[in-house]
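Consider the following assembly input.
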Amino acid sequence: MRWSNFFIPTLREDPADAEVASHRLLVRAGYIRQLTAGVYSLLPLAQRVRLKVIQIIREEMNRIGGQEFLLPAIHPAEIWKESGRWDVMGDNMFRLRDRKGTDMALGMTHEEVFTSIARNSINSYRQLPQVWYQIQTKFRDEARPKSGLLRVREFTMKDAYSFDVDFEGLDKSFQDHYDAYCRIFTRCGLKYTAVEASSGAMGGTKSTEFMVRTNAGEDNIVFCEKCGYAANVEKATSQLATLDDRGGPTGVEEFPTPGVRTIEDLTSFPGGASADRQIKTLVYILDDNVALVLLRGDHELNETKLMDASGAINVRAARPEEISEALGASAGSLGAVGVTATSHPKIGRIIADEALSARRNMTTGANKDDHHIRGVDVDRDIKVDKWASLRSVKAGEACVNCGGVLEVFRAVEAGHIFKLGTKYSDSMGAKVLTPDGQEVPIVMGSYGIGVERVMSAAIELYNDEAGISWPPSIAPFHVVLTVVNTKDQQLVETSERVYEDLCRAGLDVLLDDRDERAGVKFNDADLIGIPYRVTFGKKVKEGKAELFTRATRASEDLEIGSVVHAIRARLEEAISKNSRSKDD
RNA sequence: CGGGGCGUAGCACAGCCUGGUAGUGCGCUCGGUUUGGGACCGAGAGGUCGUUGGUUCGAAUCCAAUCGCCCCGACCA
């Protein structure tokens, strides 16, 4: 490819509305242009990267027996109503009507469509297992698209679905995908962490996210350096030191606390209690039902955990008037002591964080403004309907597995794999006969990778002052040839010859034949991030060209005749280093 | 959906407060000089000032509504 004739609209200045590095560089280096919020056009450079990522994904999916499909983006509402997700997906689903007035949707994921195929055409255990996948456009009407390609409303996803007779089969399919994902991200040059995750609206029993550590990410990951424990804060747990609850009154004791509104206030109030000896009582609306959510005073609620624990789809904090209507007091004096279905008919249920289990001598609100209760024995005095892990783990706490010190970092979710179980096969009636003639629901898994997210994450990982520095495996071109002066015939002819040789060797080569000054070309090459640059300049007279490595910014002279060999050797080393996985 | 910011040439911005019909840098075109890290000189092209309505003799500027984009939060497979 000749630069003079290839569309690379680089900008000399940073775009004003891009915050994160990948967004800023994708726009500035001429990879993408925004059409509207969360919707981007991929320009030729970006499309080349996208296709390389896709190719790696395809090879690894095929390697585990995946069969590539291509499913529609337009779905009838009917199948989403069958699975129950027509309502669950809410405003995040793009909806439309056809000319007959039938409700339709743009696909945000494809469990329903794949399951509908499976239920019609798979009847016997003999046809299983199956691994089906596609690489296709997904539509999600995000409330807040942001950060360039990191959070968008239209994007390419590789989504795969496994179908097995039983859970043992699912375990194997899940593991196959886990291994394939490790190979995919490694080959794409990404450093990643596989973490335990919440399954959210996908449902199912277990899920693992593949996270790329970067501050541009929106997820918080809890990580133990010592044993390798890693989990999304939406899922993570930690060990807490046991507190000594001895002493205090023998029974509950109400006392006046004028002016006390917060946990903090009560810690300094005479006769009050430290935060870890208080019960924080939150009022939440879980799918239109009022619930009390209890946590230790110094702990913070993680709403995803609350959703998982309660099974609720819509979760929000109650408004002040809803709180006083339900409990007869305002925030600051709330408590769950003595709250039952008869005493407080508005309260649907009480969900408590495990850290409160068996605690005694606790202090909490009295459901009477300006009054609290002390001497609370949680097991004795509070009728808890459900115990669950509800709090957000914080950095510095002890690892659940080994007691090591946990750290918390930000990350981008590049992939997510789920053990779905029979959620969709049950609701949509996808069943097979087992060898002994029993009819059982197919056991499913689903597995997704955001292709443009992989690209963005790579940029977040590999960029510097001068621009992008692509991992060679997904770079739009392996090498750029820079002709320092296009008026110098010797330089032009030499570079043309090397260009032909490199192309013949099967490399992706960009020949910068533009009539620009050398500085412009060097800066553009650095900006768009091509891993290797060969410069044809002064030393061509001595039969030499200069090889510049983008990642290290190191230069060396090469005999012109050895350029092809040198580039090939370096690429092979760089790419094979990444394709080695732990089980190879 | 709540809070904040911003819409003026392809990009980055000034002009708005104090109304008089639009400017700077980069980029672009042409000519010339240059040629190893974003050259220089000269001559040009390019703008419904987001949109609609209002005030006014006159609106980029004042008022109102509306649309859009970015950031924070809520939300999010």
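Chain A has 15 helices and 33 strands. Ask yourself how this observation constrains the way the partners meet.
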